[in-house]
Amino acid sequence: MNFVTLTSTERIASNGRVVAMFLSVAPAVLLSAGFCCTIARCLSATCMGIMLAAAVGVAVALGALGVLMASKKAPLWIALAAASVALLCALLIPSARWGFYACVNTVIARVNSICELYIPLVADAGLLCEAVSLAVLAGMFAGSLAWLFANLSVSWPTLLIIVICGSASMALQLGDSAISMTLGVAGWLVQCRAGELRGSTVGLPQVLFGLGGLCAACGVLFALIVALVQPLPEVSALSASAVKAVQGVRFGDDSLPEGDLSQAADMNEGASTTLSLTADKTLDDDLLMKGFVGTTFDGMSWGRGDWMSYEGEWSGMREWLRQTGLTVAEQRAAFDTETEREGGEPVEAVEISVDASGANRRYTYAPYTLRSLGGTGAMLTASTMLSMDFLPSKTYSVTVDNVPSDDVIADSSWLASSKSDYAKSERVYAAFVRDKYLDLPEEERDAVNTYLFSSDSWDAGANVSDTAVISRVRTMLASLAGQTDNPPTYTGATSFVAWFLGTAHEGNSAYFATAATLAFRSQGIPARYVEGYQAADGAGVALNLTAADARAWTEIYLDGQGWTPVEVTPGYYSQTLDADKIIDVGEAWSNGANDKTLDAGSVAGQAEDKHREDVSVMYNIPVVAKVGVGLIGTAIAALLALFVR
What we know:
The chain has helices at 17-38, 45-68, 74-92, 94-115, 132-150, 156-172, 177-197, 204-229, 233-251, 306-309, 317-323, 331-341, 421-436, 442-451, 466-480, 496-504, 509-522, 579-590, 623-644; strands spanning 275-279, 287-294, 296-297, 302-303, 349-355, 370-374, 395-401, 482-483, 506-507, 527-535, 543-545, 550-558, 562-566. By secondary structure, the chain is α+β, with helices and mostly antiparallel strands. The strands form 4 sheets. The chain has a 5-stranded antiparallel beta sheet. A hairpin with a 3-residue loop joins strand 12 and strand 13 (562-566). Helix 4 (94-115) packs across helix 5 (132-150).
């Protein structure tokens, strides 16, 4: 009898038990295997194999019960009960529960990386499930639900689950999406055909041939799609353009390169207004409206890298700092308050209205002396103040301390012996900063030593002050490169510092700030790269900033007072560095009055994360392209099913 031309007149009451069991089990096995592949990167290889074996075993057992039991509904209730028991045990058994938390951490890590959020990980759970108990229970859960969906009288719920799980896996890179979608759609097609074959006279060889042909066709289809899509740069470019268009609608756009040095050459081009500022009092000096903050450097661009920095051995620190009154974005204002409490001069507060209609509203622009923020939601505990609103507000207000540039570096030596909450939390944060903000690529370190700290004129073993390092960096940069608003474009062919100081010999503020940040780190000074706008002092009138006011600068961490801006672009820095202040601060922290070197594990809630090295967020195909391909593939498979039918 032909598999395709089977007619209703040729049906009989039932198949043989073997054929009936196969028709019940085959789609469930394919669906459960597809689900296992969907979350493959959440599990170790051993757990993955155990989960797959358990899922197949449960599907076969339920299929046998379905054939042997007289009641048709009883196996469905058994499958539902088995799935419920597996889920309950996964939450009650300690080893399984912590394995589940590890899987949750993997999902959170992907969401944080893709959506640029900071959702805290579950402490102590790791980032890769190695719990055999969870693998068994997860296989039981997957096998039960797969059999349940595969034996429903309708097939559309199965297809809906496949699309949802497959798209999520593609978007978050949680597994092998191509294989999982292939197995899932194959299982759905087999389910559709199995529903037609139940009660027919078709024998097992014909069933195997027909269903095997469907699975093979589905596999070839997906293999062709993956092979064609992945190498095509046009598809990747189209996906990137689509993402950029969506972000443009959501956030707007401006000329700042967001740490990408290949785009930095054009950061000062444009005449339209980006930010409009109105202060209620006269400002003592120019304002630096900070936006993007770069913490990690890969040789070509700066990345924020915030969310993972607060995990592992520093897990729980961010919340602890918040509870003790230290918020990263408002640290300088907290220092000013603490100084006044200890008898220092009070600092005048100024309220500034900000209209960011022409800027990239992904970032909330504010001065480094920020005291409070109103009218918009922003993450104040991270290095970069990212807007947390889906559609960020175009207008908001900031209250800042009116600190002139000459007083940027304050005397914080008295904090060395202070027992206040601010002093205690600052010591912890300073230890974190030294752990996270001194990294730089080795090729950049070699270039910095060659061009800026040559042994001919710099004693690397001498105990020099931060003032001496800043002066040295400024002097050497000014002697080796000139400032221009139209610099050559960096292509990443070699070390950036070597290219900038040895080949280009000119650059804009982004180039100078990058070189200086790497130079400070090479000398043991925590530093980070910052982008934003420079606003002139004024009061009562709107200051309209354009791309001509776009700037990049460096921030260094000074013990006690926090992140402090340092301008290194020739012709732009006017702050006078009082050497006595920095020397006094350094001596106060090193005279034994207070030990600044902390044990990383001394902060409450911290735990070592043994799986940090297992986290790697890599995308060979843009997310939009992968999701689109998955949906297109599913539609094609559906048409194939109709054709076969």
